[in-house]
Amino acid sequence: MTRRFAWLPALALFSVALPAAAQSEKTSEQLFLEAKADVQAGRLDEACPKFEASHRVSQNVGALLSWADCEEQRGRLATALRLWEDGGRRVANETDRRDYVASRINALKPRVPAWTISVGNPAAQNAKITIDGKAIQLGSDPVLVDPGDHIVTATADGMKAETKTVQAVESKSETVVVFAPAAETTNAPSRPIEPRPEAPTDSSASTLKIAGWITGAIGLGGAAAFGATAGVIADRCDLEGTNADGEPLDGNGCPSGSQGLLVGNAVTLGVGIAGLGVGVGLLIAGFTQKSGSEDVAIVAGPGDVGIGIAWSFGRP
Description:
This protein is α+β, with helices and mostly antiparallel strands. The protein has 3 domains: 90 residues, Tetratricopeptide repeat domain (Serine Threonine Protein Phosphatase 5, Tetratricopeptide repeat, Alpha Horseshoe); 65 residues, Immunoglobulin-like (Sandwich), CATH 2.60.40.1120; 111 residues, no CATH class. Helix content is 48%, strand content 17%. It contains 7 helices and 9 strands, in the order αααααβββββββααββ. The strands form 3 sheets. A 4-stranded antiparallel beta sheet has the order 3-2-5-6, with no helix packed on it. The chain has a 3-stranded mixed beta sheet with strand order 4-1-7, with no helix packed on it. Strands 8-9 form a two-stranded antiparallel ribbon. Strand 2 and strand 3 form a beta hairpin. Helix 1 packs antiparallel against helix 2. The longest helix has 34 residues. It is rod-shaped. The N terminus and C terminus are likely disordered.
């Protein structure tokens, strides 16, 4: 009994396989028709994956060529070229379709971006390169890529991994360098570095301000001393010949021996006037000075007696 029905599992498998194959063909045709409708409606991003799915199920060359045409229309030029070339091999014995596919290939090739990958640093040994995660063979023919941005990743022994985004441009061939060499040095004599002019500063103006405040403070001190000595003189001296204490007065209306007091009073007056005058002048110069526009100097008075300030504007 067992030996009589041993063929039944195989028969059942064969019976199931037939409907499954029929279903696959039907699905392929449905996908193909839907993709064509999407193309006519301008929905290329939906149409191309359906052409691809239809071809993978049926391996129909018509679906393959339609897929190639769809990818070319949506700008994936390198992908389209690969599909056209695959289709060209499939229709090599069909004169009409072979010539049509060849014409499409010849028109498309100049538009496809081509990259030559170069390792710039000789120290990068055993370099491995991927573009969008797909490994490429160094030293081979230029790599054809779709227009747009791509992620280029490079690794090598003893080097830090390098990842960068590179844009491919339609109809443009270029070299993409990974691990760029370090900057080279030369033995050419270097040019002497000329000193750069220093930016104008207000240091001189600050100095003038400080000097002005100090000199002015001295002038104020002199004025205060003058006021104090003047009060003493007013108290001790009298123009009527004697003072309140009955002391005899000299020709200045002051008691004998008051000459030092009078001289000191005169000196403090001079110091007060000179200090205030010079201090005010220095402060004015400090607050109004622009770098390189004035010359300011403190000068001695005639016969080295007293001090003064002199400045000039608009020096040549």
